[in-house]
Design brief:
164 residues, alpha+beta, 5-stranded mixed β-sheet, 3-stranded antiparallel β-sheet
Length: 164
Amino acid sequence: MPKKPKKPGGTPATVALTAAGTAFTVHTYDHDPASPSYGEEAAQALGVSPDRVFKTLVADVDGELTVAIVPVAGQLDLKALAAAVGAKRATMADPAAAERTTGYVRGGISPLGQRKPLRTVLDASASLHPTICVSAGRRGLEVELAPADLAALTSAVLAPIGRA
């Protein structure tokens, strides 16, 4: 009986990046469950400026779950997010709905390799950097890649959705 081919290892995010042939670097760190901010913890642990580490947030935009990717150093501007996709109103999504829809746990939601790909908006500040870091699909795991590659793989709209 022939052997089944091995499935590629990693998270759905790293599998998606590998399958797309995208250049990326994986960074790991020891996650502290008591940390008040997953993103700031990642920036500090990796020795990367917080304006280059981006958090993945899920919002409810006029009834449609939408991914917002913003620097961990700032916050998501919900009005700007709604405007970026031509909607009227945005609120933060129910965490359980975000986890169920993306297939990831809170604090480890990646914009890549989601169970159900969602409409995505990437903060325009990402284009100021040659590479940025986003969650690779679990706490303590980040991927570093070019913002243009992230935008292409997620079909993201670039818009100023973050605020300091």
